[in-house]
Each structure stands twice: as C-alpha cells, then as structure tokens.
Specification:
The longest helix has 20 residues. It is built from 12 helices and 12 strands. By secondary structure, it is an alpha+beta fold. Strand 3 and strand 4 form a beta hairpin. The protein is globular and about 65 Å long. Helix content is 39%, strand content 15%.
Length: 351
C-alpha cells in the first residue's frame, strides 16, 4: 500500500518518487509530480533552498522505531564489500595511482542513500571492519562514521558526498610513508612522528593533481588533524579557519582510532572512547559536531557484558534509539529494557 508523506529534504531517500509539483517562489517550475528524485534533482532543490517535499512511500517502509530497539545492520553487505574493495584499489596499488574519482563518488552516493533511508542510523563497533590492512579499514570506518554524523547534523546532500569522498581518502598520504613506520608496534620516535604528520600535506598534494576533484575534498585531507584551539597540524589553524567538513572527520578519525586494535595497544571500549572524545570538546573538537556525535555513537555494543546499578550483570542485546545510554540487557533474571526502568542504569562494561 502506498502513502504520501512530507519529509525534510535532508532525509529524502535517493530515487524516491515526488508526490507533487515543486514550484519556486510561486513562479518558477522546478520538478513535476512523479519525478524520480535522483541525486541531481535533490541537489537542484538544495540550490533553491527547498526545505521539505512530499514523496510516495510504501507503508511497510515507514519507520516505527520510536524508542524501540534497533539493529546495527546499517549498510548492505554487498555495498560494504564494494566500499572496501574501492578503497583497496586506491590504497594498495602503486604510489602513483590515478585517483578513481568516479568510482569513489558512485559508491559514496550508494552509502549515503542507504544511510539517509533510515530515520535513525547508529554506529556500533560491531559494524566496523576488522581487516588485515589497518589503513584501509580505518579509512572505510571513518567514512561511514563521518557520514552518520553529517546526516545527524542535517548537512546537504552535496556536502555529504564531499564529506564521504574526503573521509574515504583522508589518509591517502600515508601511502608515501614507509610501511615499517605506519605499522610500527612500538612508540614512534620524534623523527618518525614528524614524518607521519606530513601525511596530510602529502595527501593534499596527491589529490591536487586531479583537476576533477572538489577543492573541499583536498581541504578535508589537509585539515583533518587541525584542532579548534590551533594545536593541530599541519598549519596550526583555529576553528574559524578549519573547513566544517574537516571538523566532522577530525572527530570520526579520533574515535575510530581509539576503538580499533593497534599493534601497540588493545582498543578502548566505546564507552571509554566516547568519554575521551567528549573531554576535548571545544579545545580539539567543535561542539556542534560533538552534539551530533553523542546522538549517534552507541556506548554499549551488542554482546558486550555490562554491570547494572542493581548489581546484576548481563549482555547487551539491543539499543534504544530514544536513549543510547540505556540499552536492552539480558540477565539471569530476565531482560531489562533500561529505557523503561529509570531507576536502573549501566555502571560499567566488564569486557
């Protein structure tokens, strides 16, 4: 059964069917009823500052997750594999690789479409890839997480595509850093660290050779290690000078690094990593980005063992979209849906 709904343009699924004519300022005809809303159509509407549109949907696709348990199947496995393979082609080929921009943009548009089609998209550590190549896995993870934050912030489709491409390529400069330094299992020397810090500038110079590339993608790659207080690199610029999309990737980049296993340390729990990121709001990270970050990052992951304030211990079996800090927990005395038990909360993780 079909139904017409009005939805914000930022949440319209790509290829949705328009349910009414769109006329700008009562005079200029933009799109006809029945138009398939391609990426180009949505960008057109963004250019005319259209805020919402009426679309046709199947009633069974309408979201009913308000406050209910949601799963962590964010991206179709086929699209996940395509995303992974695309990054591998770019990062694992010879260092003079020609950037496959059209292919990268195409897969990012598919990912955005899937994410935008969900009214609530959350990131669990369970979603992240665990591949042998840490550099490839890291860039894929950061791209997914950046897009989820960007969607929560309500940025335009054009900016989402730029954000996705930039985040997918943000560490491409590390292709030109010796692998023995990138993968070193012990602490880097001062000289080694200074060399690694050059990857942002190296990546920018690699991308600058591609005339088709959006300049903001290059800025994202160059600025993703800049910090709001001016203590980042390579320029040491402050928040007002950092591209807003680079500010999003800065948060996603640090969170992913904290929650990934490294040769020299085990990963932090999501709960601890969230705390560490929030400790640096305003000094390192933009408050607007952290506000969205806190709404999409899941502190207690599926299968994780937690201790509750009532003394019970159990495993997380689901996430509540109404409050990410209050999951559904299976204990030996039954299931506690913490969103319905305000007097009980998670004390700590036990993994």
């Amino acid at each position: 059964m079909k139904k017409i709904i009005t939805t914000p343009l930022a949440k319209v699924p790509i290829n949705a069917v328009l349910a009414e004519d769109i006329i700008y300022d009562n005079s200029q005809f933009l799109l006809a009823c029945g138009t398939i809303l391609s990426i180009e159509c949505i960008k057109l509407l963004e250019n005319y500052a259209v805020q919402q549109v009426a679309i046709v949907v199947e009633t069974q696709t309408l979201n009913s997750n308000n406050g209910e348990i949601i799963t962590n199947n964010i991206i179709n496995p086929i699209i996940k594999s395509e995303l992974q393979n695309t990054v591998e082609q770019v990062f694992l080929t010879p260092k003079d690789v020609k950037i496959k921009l059209d292919k990268i943009t195409g897969i990012i548009e598919k990912v955005i479409d899937k994410l935008r089609s969900k009214s609530d998209a959350f990131l669990h550590l369970n979603n992240l890839y665990d591949k042998d190549n840490e550099l490839v896995a890291h860039n894929v993870n950061v791209s997914l997480f950046s897009l989820i934050i960007g969607i929560k912030m309500g940025i335009s489709l054009s900016d989402l595509v730029t954000l996705g491409v930039g985040s997918l390529l943000h560490d491409i400069g590390k292709m030109h850093i010796p692998a023995e330094i990138i993968n070193k299992p012990t602490k880097l020397t001062t000289d080694e660290y200074e060399l690694v810090k050059k990857h942002a500038t190296i990546g920018y110079n690699i991308l600058k050779q591609n005339a088709k590339l959006d300049y903001r993608v290059m800025l994202i790659v160059l600025q993703h290690h800049e910090r709001c207080n001016g203590q980042g690199y390579p320029w040491g610029i402050s928040q007002a000078q950092i591209d807003p999309l680079a500010q999003i990737i800065a948060v996603a980049d640090v969170y992913e690094a904290l929650t990934a296993n490294r040769a020299y340390r085990k990963r932090f729990t999501a709960e601890k990593a969230i705390s560490l990121v929030n400790e640096n709001v305003d000094s390192h990270f933009a408050s607007k980005v952290i506000e969205a970050f806190d709404k999409v990052v899941v502190p207690y992951n599926l299968g994780e063992t937690v201790k509750l304030s009532n003394g019970m211990v159990g495993k997380v079996t689901g996430v509540n979209s109404a409050d990410l800090k209050r999951p559904k927990v299976f204990t030996n005395q039954g299931i506690f849906n913490l969103v319905n038990t305000p007097n009980v909360h998670v004390v700590c993780t036990l993994n």
